[in-house]
């Protein structure tokens, strides 16, 4: 398959802080065993999911160019995804939740390009191309669901995290890598599991990001659609797991009507889910998402929103009622009667309006932080932002005047006005002072020798959210994960087995003669007695060629493998069922 990079206009629009997560998909890294794993899972999935998945799944496979016999090329997918308004990029395992969701907001599907080991063919806790490519991609061909995914990303990337959330992300990333890697010592896995458990039990009050991740899990990853009595699968985690897609349809898994309470139901990424949620329609998902968004600081602002940003200890933004946006790391909020009356950031801060940084108000200018009162002037019903030019003159709020502004809550700003900055609607959003003193009761918040004082104008904080208003205001190229995915080890035995898988693949593709099958089978039986998938593939070709005597030998060998390895009995039976059931259906 071609690995030539095909451009997609959506990828060209991605900001640099998202581009840092993208890695090239080297198609040549996929081995013949990888291809066999993909083919087995896809054949099982298409056979089973055609009966239990939402009808968008099979239609989406065709629309997104996902093939059954070949691992998809990211660049080939992009050519096809472009037609439905999406794109795909390859990444290394789990990326931070905010970034993952922001990619979705740009209509870009994030695909972990590694593929699970044969030993984890049914399920892996690590994201892989089966999960992303065969799970997520087909469903986005449904326009209603695709809009839900985009909207979820748009809202989700603004969710405020707690200081513990990133620790949890790193811990889960490490655990998924260790569990997927071959030969990881059990004590390392147990230590990583213990760390995840400790964090899960000590997260405190769940952050917005933790809550919206729960919604993401119970819809995008593990969602069912229809009725509780007759659900269909649409979640990518189920669509890509041949084990859990079957398990979830049994009575062992409780089915609940989906609603906003799913945000408070946690999940364990390393175990099958004990309950799942059923949405009546894709449109209903958007209703619950909007209901959740209405509870977020993004739409509520206020003291609670500012305090969430302070607790996160991470870059965030508040928006004043004038539309002025302050982005930085928030360190303090002075409150009075449950309302913020003064906000403070520390370190580089940027002021923006409508997601565009104001000229002269970047992080270099506000390098030491930013502080400003919030609210109305004491004893005056008219807020500064609502004052006409005549009102401003009446209260001496104009250039060259020395003025003392007393705000509700006893914040006092006293200095000489240099200038004011207005938005496009003509409202003043920033007033700059010289020789300025700012106090709260007896506490000095700003003094003249510190230089120019820039005061935000706004009677209330209407929004607070994660990240900057203008992504170009900050250097966000900071992602250095503490763990890297572990590649399978190479050995002479493994290389020989890979070569045999390739030979069988060449025979199936018509590039080699089927007369080599008996010799290949004897080699497998002798040198790789525990491998089961290659013998299943050989059985498929022997059945197709009516080579009954050797086929009987292969079947006897597979029975011997089943006796030695009871954990793969259902996998062998599942593969053989595809071969012989298909044969029966043709009779």
TrEMBL record:
Which cofactors, by name? Fe(2+)
Task: Supply the alphabetized keyword list.
Answer: Iron, Metal-binding, Monooxygenase, Oxidoreductase
Q: Does the keyword Ribonucleoprotein apply?
A: no
Q: Tell me which residues make up the Biopterin-dependent aromatic amino acid hydroxylase family profile domain.
A: 1-259
Enzyme class, top EC level, equals oxidoreductase
Cited Gene3D superfamilies:
1.20.58.690, Aromatic amino acid hydroxylase
One of the record's GO molecular function terms: oxidoreductase activity
Q: Does the keyword Ribonucleoprotein apply?
A: no
Annotated EC: 1.14.16.-
What NCBIfam families does its record include? PRK14056.1
Sequence similarity:
Belongs to the biopterin-dependent aromatic amino acid hydroxylase family.
List the protein's name: Aromatic amino acid hydroxylase
Q: Which organism is it from?
A: Flavobacterium litorale
């Amino acid at each position: 398959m071609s690995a030539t990079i095909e451009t997609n206009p959506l990828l060209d629009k991605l900001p640099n802080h998202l581009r840092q997560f993208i890695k090239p998909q080297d198609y040549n890294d996929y081995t013949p065993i990888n291809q066999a794993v993909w083919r087995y899972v896809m054949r099982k999935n298409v056979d089973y999911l055609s009966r239990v998945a939402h009808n968008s799944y099979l239609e989406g496979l065709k629309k997104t160019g996902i093939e059954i016999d070949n691992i998809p090329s990211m660049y080939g997918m992009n050519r096809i995804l472009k037609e439905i308004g999406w794109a795909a990029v390859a990444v290394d395992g789990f990326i931070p939740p905010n970034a993952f969701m922001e990619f979705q907001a740009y209509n870009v599907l994030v695909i972990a390009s590694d593929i699970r080991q044969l030993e984890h063919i049914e399920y892996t806790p690590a994201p892989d191309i089966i999960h992303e490519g065969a799970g997520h991609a087909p469903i986005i061909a449904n326009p209603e669901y695709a809009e839900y995914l985009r909207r979820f990303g748009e809202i989700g990337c603004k969710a405020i995290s707690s200081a513990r959330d990133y620790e949890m992300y790193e811990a889960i990333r490490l655990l998924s890598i260790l569990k997927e890697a071959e030969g990881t010592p059990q004590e390392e896995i147990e230590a990583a599991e213990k760390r995840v458990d400790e964090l899960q039990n000590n997260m405190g009050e769940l952050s917005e990001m933790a809550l919206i991740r729960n919604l993401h899990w119970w819809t995008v990853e593990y969602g069912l659609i229809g009725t509780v009595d007759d659900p269909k699968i649409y979640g990518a985690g189920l669509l890509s797991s041949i084990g859990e897609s079957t398990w979830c349809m049994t009575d062992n898994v409780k089915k609940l009507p989906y609603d906003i309470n799913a945000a408070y139901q946690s999940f364990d990424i390393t175990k099958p889910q004990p309950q799942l949620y059923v949405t009546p329609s894709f449109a209903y998902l958007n209703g619950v998402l909007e209901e959740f968004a209405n509870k977020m600081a993004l739409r509520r602002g206020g003291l609670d929103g500012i305090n969430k940003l302070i607790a996160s200890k991470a870059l965030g933004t508040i928006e004043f009622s004038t539309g002025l946006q302050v982005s930085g790391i928030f360190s303090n909020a002075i409150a009075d009667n449950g309302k913020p009356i003064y906000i403070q950031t520390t370190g580089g801060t940027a002021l923006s309006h409508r997601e565009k940084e104001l000229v002269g108000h970047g992080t270099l200018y506000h390098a030491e932080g930013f502080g400003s009162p919030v609210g109305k002037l004491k004893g005056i019903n008219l807020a500064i932002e609502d004052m006409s030019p005549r009102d401003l003159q009446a209260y001496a709020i104009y250039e060259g005047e020395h003025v003392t502004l007393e705000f509700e809550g006893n914040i006092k700003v006293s200095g000489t006005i240099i200038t004011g900055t207005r938005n496009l609607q003509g409202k003043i959003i920033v007033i700059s002072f010289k020789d300025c003193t700012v106090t709260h009761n007896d506490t000095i918040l700003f003094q003249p020798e510190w230089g120019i004082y820039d005061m935000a104008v706004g009677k209330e904080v209407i929004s607070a959210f994660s990240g900057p208003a203008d992504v170009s205001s900050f250097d966000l190229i900071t992602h250095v994960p503490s763990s890297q995915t572990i590649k399978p080890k190479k050995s002479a035995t493994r290389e020989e087995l890979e070569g045999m898988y390739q030979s069988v693949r060449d025979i199936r593709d018509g590039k080699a003669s089927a007369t080599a099958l008996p010799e290949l089978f004897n080699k497998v039986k002798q040198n790789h007695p525990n491998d089961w998938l290659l013998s299943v593939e050989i059985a498929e070709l022997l059945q197709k060629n009516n080579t009954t005597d050797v086929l009987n030998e292969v079947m006897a060998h597979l029975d011997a493998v089943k006796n030695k390895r009871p954990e793969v009995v259902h996998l062998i039976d599942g593969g053989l069922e595809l071969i012989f059931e298909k044969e029966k259906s043709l009779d």
